[in-house]
Design a protein that fits this description.
9 helices, 6 strands, metal-binding, EC 3.1.3.5, alpha/beta, single chain, HAD-SF_hydro_IA, HAD-like_sf, Rossmann fold, 2 domains
């Protein structure tokens, strides 16, 4: 993997789910726990629940609604917040995320969390993993009304947060999001190779893959 030119990077923009956090929680929640809950609540088979829910989820892919707790609470008539609380024991950091963040902090890099997660989901996860001490700014795309896949997200971010796109590194596990960041002019991009610790490695396409976040900071000088 080519080393990053850290002398040209001031700001590190970080995705949450699948980048800092193990995507296993979200995959279990959306693909197993929630459809089973829906089936039990409505007295239908799991197969029937999947047949209804999976295409419905897919139809909102890349839109702000896909990530919205309130939207799915109303659409499916399910207590999504409470359901996420019920499964919060599955929320975990990806391997070495905390060491990676500590290295960035020691090197004086500005760390900004930019997530498509709804604030309700974000609050549940941050209570479990305690990332706030390592982050300078925490942004949910719901703050702006546009997901990271949308160029308007990046325009809103640049108005709200002082950073130079060309001197920023962005790490995410979503190819559409990375392509959106690339179009906006983010200077350095890395894709997460295995966002779900219990899932397969993914095709990172045109982006440089990252398996272990710690590898990205192996040559990062500390200012402390």
């Amino acid at each position: 993997m080519p080393q990053l030119p850290w002398d040209k990077i001031d700001t590190v923009l970080l995705d949450m789910d699948g980048t800092l956090l193990d995507l296993h929680f979200d995959n279990v929640f959306w693909l197993d726990y929630m459809p089973q809950y829906y089936a039990d609540k409505n007295g239908i088979s799991r197969a029937a629940a999947d047949a209804y829910i999976r295409p419905l989820l897919a139809s909102y892919t890349g839109q702000i609604q896909w990530y919205c707790v309130d939207f799915w609470t109303e659409k499916l008539e399910l207590p999504i917040r409470q359901m996420k609380q019920n499964t919060a024991h599955l929320i975990n950091l990806r391997a070495n995320s905390d060491q990676f963040l500590q290295a960035l902090q020691k090197a004086g890099k500005r760390c900004i969390l930019i997530t498509n997660a709804h604030r309700a989901s974000l609050d549940i996860k941050l209570k479990k993993v305690h990332l706030e001490p390592f982050l300078d700014v925490i942004i949910s795309s719901h703050d702006y009304g546009y997901p990271k896949e949308d160029q308007r997200f990046w325009e809103c971010l640049s108005q709200a947060v002082d950073f130079q796109p060309e001197r920023s590194l962005f790490i995410d596990d979503s190819l559409p999001v990375l392509r959106s960041a690339q179009r906006y002019g983010i200077g350095y991009l890395r894709a997460v190779l295995q966002p779900d610790s219990q899932g397969p490695e993914k095709d990172c396409a045109e982006f440089t893959p990252s398996m272990d976040l710690n590898d990205l900071v192996s040559d990062l000088p500390s200012t402390h």
